[in-house]
Amino acid sequence: MDITQLVQDITARLRQESERGQVADYIPPLACIAPDKFGIAVVLDDGSLHCAGDADEPFSIQSISKVFALTLALGSVGDQLWNRVGREPSGSAFNSIVQLESEHGIPRNPFINAGAIVVTDVLLGHLEPREAIGQMLRFVRELAGDDTILIDESVARAEQETGFTNMALANYMRAFGNVHGDVAKVLGTYFHFCALAMSCRQLAMAGRFLMDEGRVEGRRIVTGRRARRINALMMSCGHYDNSGDFAYRIGLPGKSGVGGGILCVAPGVASIAVWSPGLNASGNSHLGQRALEMLVQRTGWSVFEARRA
Ligand SMILES: NC(=O)CC[C@H](N)C(=O)O
């Protein structure tokens, strides 16, 4: 199948859509992004790259950074991480606080805000914020093979000034003893992770290690088992209270962010990034999901599709 043609067809179709969802406006710089942006990039297992639309324009990856933060934290403390974060879908909004009371400050999974804040706190167990932010930047640059990736300081600052819900989550978990460090330092670091700016091309490249059993161009980043497990968490928890529907419609591990990006992995086959800033009610890219649905329908890349030799 001609994947270049396919991503161009999908882009042309979705460019005409008038129903594009709502751009996130609770983070002021994100409210200014034009809702008609659309990009898609697909890296195949053979290394070929297929892009269309605004695939080279950097956007705020937001919660997609939770995948990279989890990978770093597992590398640093291994399975001990699971003493402080669960592995179950929450069925609640990405920034929900409700389950934390009855579940004693242990977030359901690393891909909701509360979970990622704990993951960040774990990384700060042995690093200063500046070092942890530097480690994250080096990591995504290495994964993508691209040293031009940056953190958008204006987005990090805006979140610092307006992130009252995240402050509540962090303080509440601190009260339960599940955030150990200084809350302001933990949040400052978390906001910098969220403020990573990457294009679809860079993001799809950075997802290659999850496509290829933990390797990038033959170099081992994580074990095959760890890559499979991160993919499993992306499948079950990558889209908050929309995760079940995403699995039903697309059938691939994926992680969304309120910047409108989605990183999606077809294990052994492709690493895919889409970007359209308008969100659905759960905070996931509306047209990004449509694009992935179209891609999977045409390619059969769902992990639930039988592959017979
Ligand atoms: N779902 C998201 O992308 C949320 C990330 C955002 N930085 C927040 O903490 O609210």
Automatic annotation (TrEMBL):
A Gene Ontology molecular function term of the record: glutaminase activity
One Pfam match: Glutaminase
Catalytic reaction equation(s): L-glutamine + H2O = L-glutamate + NH4(+)
This protein's record includes keyword Electron transport: no
Keyword Protease: no
Enzyme nomenclature, EC number: 3.5.1.2
Keywords: Acetylation, Hydrolase
Positions annotated to bind substrate: S63, N113, E159, N166, Y190, Y240, V258
Matching SUPFAM superfamilies: beta-lactamase/transpeptidase-like
Binding partners and assembly: Homotetramer.
Recorded family membership: Belongs to the glutaminase family.
Protein name: Glutaminase
The organism of origin for this protein: Novosphingobium organovorum
